[in-house]
Amino acid sequence: MMSPVGNFRIRTYSPRMNMCEHTDSNMVTITFELPGLKRDDVAIDLLHNQLTISGESTIDQRSQGEGRYSCREIPYGKFHRCLTVPLGTRPEDLKARMEDGLLTLTYPKDPPDVKPHRIPIA
């Protein structure tokens, strides 16, 4: 998606991902393609049962030098990807690892039962 801002365009994209549900361990593993990024370039947020992966990748100016691109397929700019995780998933249930441009998230497919909190009546 691109939107004009003055003479510039803001580019946003959704990184590609693979999702695997492991029936033997009741876990879900999601792997996102984030080439050239480090863990400090990526944010992972959980609000209720909405998981958001976001960040920004920049163009490598060194590869361009004085020339002009004749083909540029590598995405850059701001990115985000939103996923719904099971209700009751807590931040401590999520495990994240960044290695070789791949962000891997793992969480339980069925989180522990959420027990109601009894409210005393005054």
TrEMBL record:
Alphabetical UniProt keywords: Stress response
InterPro entries to which the protein is assigned, alphabetical: A-crystallin/Hsp20_dom, HSP20-like_chaperone, Small_HSP
All copies of domain SHSP, residue ranges: 8-122
Record-linked PROSITE patterns: SHSP
SUPFAM superfamilies documented for this protein: HSP20-like chaperones
Keyword Signal: no
Pfam families linked: HSP20
Family membership noted in the UniProt record: Belongs to the small heat shock protein (HSP20) family.
Protein known as: HSP20-like chaperone
Organism this protein belongs to: Boletus edulis BED1
